[in-house]
Amino acid sequence: MAEVTRVERTVPTVKKKKKVAAYARISMESERMNHSLSVQISYYSSLIQKNPDWEYAGVFADDGISGTGIAKRDEFKRMIAAVENGEIDVILTKSIQRFARNTVDLLETVRHLKDIGVEVRFEKEHINSMSGDGELMMTILASFAQEESRSISDNVKCGIRKRMQNGIPNGHFRVYGYRWEEDELVIVPDEAEIVRRIYQNFLDEKSRLETEREFAAEGITTREGYPWMDSNIRNVLTNITYTGNLLLQKEYISDPITKKRKKNHGELPQYYVENSHPAIIDKETFDYVQSEIARCKELGPLANKSLNISCFTGKIKCPYCGLSYMHNTRKPRTEYGQTLELWTCGSRKKKGGRCEIKGSINQGNMEKVLAEVLGLDKFDEDVFLREVEVIYVPKSYTLEIHMTDGCVITKDCLNTGHKDC
Q1: What is the Cα–Cα distance from 38 to 171, expressed in whole angstroms?
Q2: Judging by DSSP bridges, how do beta strands 127-128 and 340-345 pair with one another?
Q3: How far is 345 from 359, CA to CA, in rounded Å?
Q4: How would you class 103 by CB atoms within 10 Å of its CB: exposed for 0-12, middle for 13-18, buried for 19 or more?
Q5: Using CA atoms, how far apart are residues 71 and 325, in angstroms rounded to an integer?
Q6: What is the CA 58 to chain-centroid distance, rounded?
Q7: What is each CA distance from 263 to 231, 255, 266, in whole angstroms?
Q8: Residue 295: which residues within 8 A CB-CB, separation 6 or more?
């Protein structure tokens, strides 16, 4: 008898296509570089769409952005977000340098992609992030790319400093009151009047806050249309450019990888260029303003007449919190009572702040103690400011008075608040 075998119906399996994207980047904005970027985009678009096993997931391209960081690479971040949404399985890129010049960023990103099952293929180096030796090769080559970036940065800095030595600034920086015409700074009359007014207000002993409010009331704004703020006014008052001179290399980039900028406090040479452009403020006025700013900085809060301060402001310190004592007033409970002036550790003004020293210092009692220490019949502010360096409060109702001659005197200053009330 013939043997009969049943043949089951087979369903053909359809191979799932991989969703493939590409990443391209150039770090310099120029016509030649832009052409290079467009070539990369066209190349990868064509390459992915021609492969029958691949599904086109887009080409992400950052134009004119450094590869030493991720923060400013919007397309790179958009690509990573697409990966995390499951829209990409494979990423193609020309080389490690195009993907990242920062070794830490490269390895962290590739490891993150590997953990979620997405591979990165570097064409130039023939590296696949999923291969066994892929990470080792990436680490070595990324280190070379990072050091190459440092070398390029050093060469660029050298060129910039040579130009500075010849009195040539690094590019056309923005400064209120001037505009660039080719390589020359030219005064903008309307803005120059505002600059002169800021200086005149300072000479008239108006605070920056008063100038800020004055401009707000008159609708005077910055070049970008924003209200004038304290920081803007301070920058105008301290910018030597308004004297017709330039000070070059006031800031510098401390690390070419992080791009962190720092104020130049003598770490690098600065270059002073005299009479490089028309002046808005004469040098004598500018120098006087700088000396007054320095004097006010040394005085601290005492120099700010807009604050409600006294001779004790900044003079009474807490040795535990490191903060100054702050002034408080306590209103009387009855119409015949007396308003009390008290000083309390500044930590109590902060949310959740605590201090080991309990209680407040009664200003009236403190003045009596200080008058006795200073050998006066009545407390005198001028003598106090001249003779006393600082007052510490080591324990409740105790003053440790440090004199300017180095002598330290400890005195009790009992709080008689209840009795006074």
Answers
A1: 28
A2: unpaired
A3: 9
A4: buried
A5: 42
A6: 35
A7: 16, 13, 9
A8: 303
Q: Encoding tokens for residue 192?
A: 């120059």
Name the residue type at position 12. Answer: P
Nearest-CA neighbor of 290 among 252, 325, 242?
242
Residues near 12 by beta carbon (within 8 Å), at least 6 away in sequence: none
**If you average pLDDT over residues 69-87, what whole number do you get?**
88
Mean pLDDT within 84-98: 88
**Among 275, 277, 283, residue whose Cα is nearest residue 185:** 277
Print burial letters for 363-391: b (CB count within 10 Å at least 16), e (below 16): bebbbebbbebbeeeebbeeebeebbeeb
Place of tokens 């904005």: 29
Q: Which residues pair with 142 in a beta bridge?
A: none
pLDDT of 278 > 80? The answer is: yes
CB 321 within 8 Å of CB 346: yes
Residue length of the chain? 421
Residue whose pair of structure tokens reads 């600059």 in the numeric block: 195
DSSP symbols for 381-393: HHHHHHHEEEEE-
**Are β-strands 316-317 and 271-273 bridged in parallel, bridged antiparallel, or unpaired?**
unpaired
- Backbone φ, ψ for residue 87 (5° rounding): -90, -5
* Mean residue pLDDT across the chain: 81
Max mean pLDDT among 291-300, 301-310, 347-356 falls in: 291-300
pLDDT in tens, 13-44: 566 889 999 998 887 654 455 567 888 888 99
Whole-angstrom Cα distance, residue 217 to residue 392? Answer: 43
Give per-residue pLDDT as tens, 105-134: 777 888 888 888 898 888 888 888 887 666
pTM higher than 0.90? no
Distance CA 142, CA 302 (A): 55
